[in-house]
Amino acid sequence: MELVVSEEPLVERWQEFLKKYYWDEILKLSNAYPEERSLYVSFFDVIKGATELESLLLEEPDVVLRNAREALRRMDLPTGVSLEDAHVRIVGLPEAHRPRIRDIRSHHIGKLISVEGIVLKVTEVRPKVVSAAFECQQCRHVTFVPQEGRGFVEPAECEGCHRKTLRLVPEKSKFVDAQKMRLQEPPEELRGGEMPQILDVNLEDDIAGVATPGDRVVVTGILRSYQRRTQHGKSPFFDVYLDAISVEREEKEFEEIEISEEDERKILELKSDPNIYEKLIRSIAPSIYGYEEVKEAILLQLFSGIPKELPDGTRIRGDIHVLLVGDPGIAKSQLLSYAVKLAPRGIYAGAKGATAAGLTATAVKDEFGDGRWALEAGVLVLADKGIAAIDEMDKMDKKDRDALHEAMEQQTISIAKAGITATLKARCAILGAANPKYGRFDRYEPLAEQINLPPTLLSRFDLIFTLMDRPEEEADVNLASHILRTHYAGELLATSGGDVKEVRMIEPEIPPSLLRKYIAYARRRVFPVMSREAMQMFLDFYVGLRRQGYGEDAPIPVTARQLEALIRLGEACARARLSNVVTAEDAERVIRLVNYCLRRVFVDPETGKLDVDWVAVGTSKSRRDRAKMIKEIIKELEEEAGGGAVPLEEVLDVAESRGIERAKAEEVIESLKRDGIIYSPKHGYIGIVR
C-alpha cells in the first residue's frame, strides 16, 4: 500500500524531535560546520521519540529524510550558523531491517535497510554533479537541472528563448564528492560451498572516502534499482545498488578500539598483578594443550615492538614475524585462527589457493571503476596494522612466495603496472604455518633441511618454531585428557549454558574482549625504552653467540637480524606488562625464547655448533667446505688425466683419504650435479662444468 505523505507537518515533527533529543549534538555540529556536515540519529531514538515517523522512515525514506534535512536547515541556532548543506544520517536499524546481501529481494527496493559486509574495493573520490547549469548560447539564460538518477539529464531547450543552443557550464554547476564501494558478505555468514555475494554502494559528500578495503562496515541506505542493457537492447532484469545514508565501521585498528573508564580500571588492575605475563600467555588459545613457547611468541606478536623512524629517513619495523613448521594434526591452523580473532584487523589466508596478487596487491581494470585502472588490495595490505596469518606456506608457488620478501622487511608493497607506480603500506605482522618437506619431520634428517621454504624468506622471520609429533606416554595421556575435557566442556556448554566447573577450566583467564582492549591500551599508551641492564644482556648474548664464529674456518652463528629480533621482542615483553622500561627480566625472557628457537633450528647436526647459514643460505659451513674440497679433488684429477671427465670411484677414494666419509661425499656430488656445477657424461664419470 502506498503511503500518502504530507510534507509540511513532517518538517515540524522533525524539528520537535531534533530539539528534544539532539539539541546538544546540533550545537556541536554548528560549531564544527562546514568541516563536519552530518548529524547521526539513532533509529531507536526515532522509535522512542517520534513513533509516527518510524514506519514512514522505513517505507518512504526519500521523503522523510528530505524533510529531516529541511528541518535541520530551518533550525534557529544561537551560534547564528545556517546548516544549509548538513545531512541527517540514520544509524542503528534493528535486525529485522538488516538483511544479508544474499537475502535482498525486490520488495526492499526503495526501502531503508542496513547491510553488513567487508569492503572489497573502492574507487577514487571524484566530484559528481547534483545540479547541472546549462547556459543558452543565444540569450545567456542559465537553466539548472537536478541530477538524481544514474544517467545525466539534459534539458531539451532553453527556458527563455526555447532554442536548443545549450552548453553545460561546470563553473556554475553544483558538485558533491562521490565514491563507489563494493561490499562482500562476511565469511562467517556463508554455509559450505556458498560463493560470497557482493553489493555495490554509492557514497556521497562527507561519507565518501571513510572506508578502505578490508574494513568491516554496516551501511544504512536506500536500495535502488536500474535496468540492465544487453547488445539486444534493454533487459527485463534489473540490478540493485545501495544509496548510502550512513557508514559505520565495525572492525577497527588497535589504535581505534574504544576503551571506557571501566575498561581502563580493569586494565590497570591487571597491570598490578605480579603474574600478569604468565596470565596473558595462558589466555592465548587455552583449549590447545601445551605449546607455551609458541603462545608466548603469538602474545608478543600481538603487542609488537616499537616501529622507529630514524632522522635519515630509515624505517625499522616493530612488527614481529613468527613461523610454525610442524607435523600434521598439531593445531597449527587453530593457533593461527585464534591470533586472527584477537587482532582487531586480522586476516587468515590459506597459501595454497593464494596468488601473489591475492597476497599483496594488483592493478585491475573493470566497469566498477568506470574503465579506469584501480588498485585492488590483497591480504597483506588489508591486514595493515594487524596480523596476517598465512597457512600452508610450504605449498605456495615460488613466484607467489617471492612477493612476500618486500612486505616482510620493508613492510610495503610496490606496484608497477599499466602506468601505475604505487607503494602500498603493509605494516602487519606475519604468522606463518608450514608442513615439513616430506609431510612429517624425519628424526634422522637435519630440521633445517626439512623446512621447504627459501632461505631468503626464512631469514626474515624473527622466531621459527619446529613442532614435532613424537609418541611419548606421559605427554600423550596429558594431551588426550585435555582434548577429552575440552570436548566434554563443549557438550556441557551446548546443553547447560556453561556455568559449570568443567567449562570454566578451559575459559581464558583474561576474556578475549578485555585482552583485546588490554593490547590496544598497551599499543596506544606504552612505548618502552631499553634499560642499560637489558642492553648489556642483549649485547652479551649476541656477542657470545658471534664468538663461536671467530676464527677462519668457523661458521657464522647469528647475524644482526637476530639482534634486531631480540630488541623487538624485548619491547613487546615490556608492553605486555604495561611498562615503559625494558628490564633485565624482560631481556632474560626473550633471550630464553630466542635461544629455544635457535637451538632447535640453527644448529649444524654435524658439528653441534650454531650456523645461521642453515636458514639464511640453505646449507651449512661444513657442507660448503666439503663441496669446495670435492671440486678441488675433481680439478686435480682432471689435470692429472689431461682434461675431460674422471672416474667417480677415484674421486670418492681421494675424498675418503682426506677425511670425508664416502656416503657424505656421494651426497655432495649429487647436490653439485643438481646445481649444475658438475656433470656426468657417462655412467661412473664426472667432470667440472666450464
What is the topology, as strand order, of the major beta sheet? 3-7-8-10-9
Number of strands: 26
Let me know the CATH homologous superfamily of the largest domain: P-loop containing nucleotide triphosphate hydrolases
Q: Enumerate the spans where pLDDT stays under 50 for 5 or more consecutive residues.
A: 1-5
Task: Count every helix, treating DSSP H or I runs of 4 or more residues as helices.
Answer: 25
Strand proportion: 15-25%
**Judging from the principal axes of the Cα atoms, what is the shape?**
globular
**Quaternary organisation of the protein chains:** single chain
Which CATH architecture of the largest domain would you pick? Answer: 3-Layer(aba) Sandwich
Summarize the amount of helix as a percent range: 25-40%
Tally the structural domains: 6
Main structural class: alpha/beta
Q: What does this protein structure show overall?
A:
By secondary structure, the chain is of the alpha/beta class. It folds into 6 domains: 7-91, mini-chromosome maintenance (MCM) complex, chain A, domain 1, CATH 3.30.1640; 97-251, OB fold (Dihydrolipoamide Acetyltransferase, E2P) (Beta Barrel), CATH 2.40.50.140; 253-282 and 473-520, no CATH class; 283-470, P-loop containing nucleotide triphosphate hydrolases (Rossmann fold, 3-Layer(aba) Sandwich); 526-616, Orthogonal Bundle (Helicase, Ruva Protein, domain 3), CATH 1.10.8; 621-688, Winged helix-like DNA-binding domain superfamily/Winged helix DNA-binding domain (Arc Repressor Mutant, subunit A, Orthogonal Bundle). It contains 25 helices and 26 strands. The strands form 8 sheets. Strands 3-7-8-10-9 form a 5-stranded mixed barrel. A 5-stranded parallel sheet has the order 14-17-20-13-21. The chain has a 3-stranded antiparallel sheet with strand order 24-26-25. β18 and β19 form a beta hairpin. The protein is globular and about 110 Å long. It starts with 6 loop residues before the first helix and ends with a strand.
